[in-house]
Design goal:
By secondary structure, the chain is α/β, with parallel strands linked by helices. It folds into two domains: about 200 residues, Glycogen Phosphorylase B (Rossmann fold); about 180 residues, Glycogen Phosphorylase B (Rossmann fold), CATH 3.40.50.2000. It is built from 18 helices and 13 strands. The strands form two sheets. Strands 3-2-1-4-5-6-7 form a seven-stranded parallel sheet. It starts with a helix and ends in a 6-residue tail after the last helix. This is CDP-Glycerol:Poly(Glycerophosphate) glycerophosphotransferase. It comes from Maritimibacter harenae. Keywords: Coiled coil.
């Protein structure tokens, strides 16, 4: 920053006529004073390494690496949605052990549907830290200053977590990130409805060097809405698939019950998008079931955007939901999963109850039964969605009172589990055995000079 002061002094001496108009002289003095104040603030931040970069050693590392990264491919991971971290986690950790890469993670605030402000950067940062990931915190009151900080690293590649521009500060819009090659791994394993194909027609997708997809069928479906007709899509497999299959079981409810159920609820509870969410139509019935069946653990896993939508509600509707959560959390056999760590509960549970969307596919990778609570106005599945739904037990929301009987029937074996359909789905999604390796090799092919490969 000292160069700004020097430039001002050189400007004064080089153009002496500027000393004549007093207003210009005063303006230059004010700018000089503001520059000194800014330098003092930056010096204070650098003295206190935890203010922005976390540990002092981490700050020292990054300060050095901004100048010289020894020819490695420098990659930024912009993380605002910890719940979807599992789509990129193995890519990041593999890069850490590969001398070709210099991966750096940044935590961002987010604004999911229902939120008024950008929030939760602190939670993202803390949850990443719990996973052993040190993130640089981009939480400035002026996000464009954070963008300047990001640019200072001279990245070769950037991974952003989703195509939904309103979810993150405008400073990190795809156009503003075009100083580096942008890559995209979808946060969901694959889209199951044509309404989920927005990702191939957004500006973010169109500016990406590559979009990595789970299978040839995923690519074939998406090509119809892609202006490049699939030319920038790479079939890598999805990195989340092996994460789900290999996860260690964990369960947050300590009752000793033999039966464990996950209930997942999407945020699309109104009309106009994919119309999969049924939470307002079923939450009372699920509370009654959990209260009545103390022999069954029920872990509620709401979409994070469902929670933000509820938090912004008012009146009797908000009061009803507040009462639900209070009563739910008071039961000994229930809990709410809010930290995004769902892979362990997937392994430890026996059955999933869900309206949509991503878990419909993901839970079947462990070959366990899925009850799909469906709305009559939901969007129609695409070809991949048909494969997904073939492995589920559909229960129209109008018949939610039959849920308990369906659970008992499936777990007792009276209702046959749809294992054949689930195994076909799993086989399709595991054709690529090492998705993270496929993605890393693609970046090497794109970004490393041929002489250094």
């Amino acid at each position: 920053m000292r160069f700004i002061s020097g430039a001002l002094e050189r400007l004064r001496s080089a153009i002496p006529d500027l000393s004549r108009p007093k207003r210009i002289e005063e303006a230059l003095d004010q700018l000089h004073q503001r520059n000194e104040a800014l330098e003092n603030k930056i010096d204070a931040l650098l003295r206190n390494g935890t203010a922005t970069l976390g540990a002092a050693s981490l700050g020292a590392k990054y300060a050095k690496n901004v100048v010289n990264n020894e020819g490695r491919i420098r990659v930024a991971f912009l993380i605002h949605n910890f719940e979807a971290w599992w789509s990129l986690r193995s890519v990041y950790f593999r890069m850490l052990t590969d001398d070709s890469f210099d991966p750096i993670v940044f935590s961002l605030p987010r604004k999911f549907p229902g939120s008024v402000d950008f929030i939760d950067e602190d939670k993202v940062h803390e949850r990443l830290a719990a996973e052993g990931v040190h993130s640089i915190r981009l939480n400035d009151s002026d996000p464009f200053r954070d963008l300047d900080r990001l640019r200072s690293f001279e990245f070769d590649a950037i991974f952003r977590q989703s195509q939904w521009a309103p979810d993150i500060p405008p400073a990190f819009d795809s156009l503003n990130l075009s100083f580096a090659h942008q890559y995209y791994v979808p946060y969901e394993v694959t889209t199951i409805s044509d309404h989920g194909l927005d990702f191939v027609s957004t500006y973010h997708h169109q500016l990406c060097a590559r979009v990595f997809v789970a299978s040839e069928l995923s690519k074939s479906i998406a090509e119809s809405k892609d202006i490049y007709r699939g030319a920038r899509m790479t079939v890598s497999g999805h990195p989340k698939v092996p994460e789900i299959i290999r996860a260690s079981p964990s369960w947050p409810i300590d009752t000793g019950n033999a039966t464990r159920v996950i209930w997942s609820a999407h945020h699309a509870i109104d009309t106009g998008w994919n119309n999969y969410g049924v939470f307002p139509l079923v939450f009372e019935e699920l509370l009654k079931l959990a209260t009545r069946r103390t022999d069954i653990d029920v872990l509620f896993s709401p979409h994070p955007a469902l929670l933000t939508r509820i938090q912004e509600m008012t009146g009797s509707e908000r009061a009803d939901y507040d009462a639900f959560f209070e009563n739910w959390e008071a039961l000994p056999n229930t809990a709410v999963l809010e930290d995004g760590r769902y892979l362990g509960p997937f392994q430890a549970s026996d059955l999933l109850i869900i309206d949509g969307l991503s878990f419909l596919t993901e839970y079947q990778l462990n070959e366990k039964p899925v009850i799909h609570l469906s709305r009559p106005d939901r969007s129609e599945p695409n070809r991949f969605g048909e494969l997904v739904f073939a492995g589920t037990h559909e229960l129209p929301v109008a018949r939610v009172c039959d849920l308990e009987n369906m659970i008992d029937g499936i777990l007792s074996g009276e209702i046959e589990q749809k294992l054949d359909a689930q195994r076909r789905l799993k086989a399709l999604l595991t054709e690529k055995s090492d998705p993270a390796g496929e993605i890393i090799n693609a970046l090497k092919a794109d970004l490393r000079p041929a002489s250094s490969k």
